Amino acid sequence: MKELVEIKDLKRSFAGKKALDGMSFSLGTGKIVGLLGENGAGKTTLMRVMAGLLTKDSGSVRIDGEEIGAKTNGLISYVPDHFVFGGFRKIGTVVTYMKRIFSDFDEKKAEALLEKLHFTKEQKMASMSKGQKAQVQLVLFMSRKAKLFLLDEPLAAVDPATREFIIKTILSTFGEDNTVLISTHVVMDVELILDEVIMIKNGHVHLQGETDELREKYGKTINEIFKDEFRFVEGGSENE
Amino acid sequence: MSDMVINNRKNGSRLGLERFILDIKKYRLLGIILPVILLIPSVIIQVLWIRYDKIVIKYGIDTSLGNGRLLDPEKITSGERRIIRILEYVLDEPPLVRGVLWAFTLVLILLVVCQIADMFKSFFGSNSALVLAAPCSKPILFVSKFLAASVTSFISIWCSQVQWVFIEGGLKWDGSSLNIMSFRTFRGIESNSDLSLDLNWVSVLDIFAIFLLLWLGVFTILAISGKIQKAFKTPVMVAVAIVIAIALSWAFVHSMELQSEVNTLPLLFMIPCILFLADILLISKYDAVTV
User: Fold this and answer.
1) If you ran DSSP here, which 8-state letter would residue A196 be given?
2) Of chain A's two ends, which shows fewer C-beta atoms within 10 Å, N or C?
3) A101, A137, A151: best mutation site toward chain B, by most B Cβ within 10 Å?
4) Number of A:B CB contacts under 8 A?
5) Which one of B5, B122, B234 would you mutate to disrupt binding with A, by most A Cβ within 10 Å of its Cβ?
6) What is the domain partition of chain A in residue ranges?
7) Sheet holding A17-27, edge to edge
8) Is B237 part of the contact surface with chain A (CB cutoff 8 Å)?
9) From CA A155, how far away is CA A168, in angstroms rounded?
10) Ordered per-residue pLDDT tens for chain B, 291 residues
11) Chain B environment of A28 (Cβ under 8 Å)
12) E strand or H helix at B16, and its extent?
């Protein structure tokens, strides 16, 4: 069976520093996958390469059998780690913008979710709090009928209530035909919804597996495994 | 759902077209609506000239002396007298004309500033991740923005040229047909009255052709330098590319000055230069932007 994501020996460096150093993994459909790793492990670089924003130095990245390009951008909904809808735009304008750019954007779904959160079309992005912006951004990107959702640190710097909303939104969007890849440090909050985890370290896959299997194998929660694998000691991580 | 997903995909060129329409809409106020509105004073002046010419023919006024004002007030209507007053008594450059010229300059500058700001925002700003992650190839994205900037710039340039011609020159009614004069002062004195003028179409197209050539030239250099930078990824290449961009823009601006072309043109030529720089700067963040 063809995998949705196939990455082989992916390398990318910035000014001599290796951000991705021979990363290889594959993902099937119908999964929520956690991309876990310490700061600078290469999570954001990996997502940006997959989203077609950064080029690779070498290796292969295939999404649904296609090399990264305009075609794969149509299959991926990438939620960056910063807010892309800034300024004095109204929510209504942003919804129209998304509709025009992405033909798979489900306007009704977005509007229903926004209404549920008590947002109005006239509300301006500039007047919103950080948490509200995170909610709006997530709702808009998750309202696409994409095959692969790339969520870069969606839980960072948001309050517990917003985290809960984000997790609920991910679950409501997720289906058998798509896969959600979430990069996060906040493992505890998402652990229960993850089907699989990929732990990356120094630009390559350190550990990958089904969450249930890993829990059974290590006799610990994913959060505990993560802490053990990335435990920091003075001068670097313990495992280095 | 997967079939629906595939069927729903827009192809790149359609998306490029939609982006082009979005950009045109973005610039519609400065690039289309305001330039057209600013043509209104010129149109009003031309209407007045035609009415003035009819009065001249009616009363046999010698326009070379601009003596319509000497006519017996009893003979002419108050409306006719008002038109004569407007066209024979006003200054060579009345406040209205000055105001319109200033407004046009302002609109063109604002348009250029907005286009530059938009390019920066799209390729370099916080929402570049959204713009560049669109299912559209980067050349199409780039070209659609280029076309939108070109179309709105062309309309603005054309309107300003037409406005200039109609402020400086004017329509003349000779009793049977309309002629375009190359020069009519606001005192009712004509110059080169035998010379017909064709709305400066040629000069507008000349300017625009140079504008297009410059864009395409820089676009090609950008593409080549982008490839080189991707291959070598050295700061030296970035520095070389910046120097080339500045030198190229300066050369064009200088050549324009030598040809005594429109003053606003150098500003328009800064767009590709800035865009080029923006593209180079983007290498460090989202290098996939380079075509």
Assistant:
1) E
2) N
3) A101
4) 81
5) B5
6) 5-84+146-237
7) A17-27, A5-14, A58-63, A66-67
8) no
9) 12
10) 444 444 444 566 777 787 788 888 888 999 899 999 988 888 888 888 888 888 888 887 776 656 666 667 677 888 888 887 777 765 556 677 778 888 888 888 888 778 767 766 776 667 777 777 777 776 677 778 778 887 888 888 788 877 777 776 677 777 777 776 655 655 545 554 443 444 445 555 665 665 566 555 555 555 566 566 566 655 566 566 667 666 766 666 666 555 555 444 555 555 555 555 555 544 444 565 544
11) none
12) helix B12-26
* 3-state SS class at A1: coil
| 3-state SS, residue A19 | strand
Q: Do A70 and B129 touch (CB under 8 A)?
A: no
Mutate to test the interface with A, among B121, B127, B232, B234 (most CBs of A within 10 A): B127
* Strand pairing category for A232-233 and A204-210: unpaired
How far off is chain B from A222, nearest CA to CA, in Å?
A: 31
Are B22 and B131 within 8 A, CB to CB?
no
Query: How many Å apart are CA B157 and CA B206, to the nearest integer?
Result: 11
| B135 → closest Cβ in A54, A70, A97 | A70
Q: What's the ipTM? A: 0.73
Query: Which tokens is B164 given?
Result: 């200039």
How far A13 CA sits from the closest chain B CA (Å)?
10
SS3 A215: helix
Distance from the B1 Cα atom to the nearest Cα atom in chain A, whole angstroms: 7
Q: Which two tokens stand for residue B9?
A: 């995909």
Q: How far is A210 from chain B (nearest CA, A)?
A: 24
Burial of B123 (0-12, 13-18, 19+ CB in 10 A): buried
Determine the Cα–Cα distance for residues B81 and B14; give it in Å rounded to an integer: 58
Please state which CATH class domain A5-84+146-237 belongs to: alpha beta
Q: How far is A108 from chain B (nearest CA, A)?
A: 16
CA distances from B230 to A7, B185, B225 (A): 21, 59, 8
Here the tokens at position A46 are 């990996």
- CB-CB under 8 Å, A85 with B15: no
The alpha carbon of residue A167 and the mean position of all alpha carbons in its chain are separated, in whole angstroms, by 12
The answer to whether the Cβ–Cβ distance between B130 and A53 falls below 8 Å is no
Distance from chain centroid for Cα A94: 21
CA A64 to CA A75: how far, in whole Å? 8
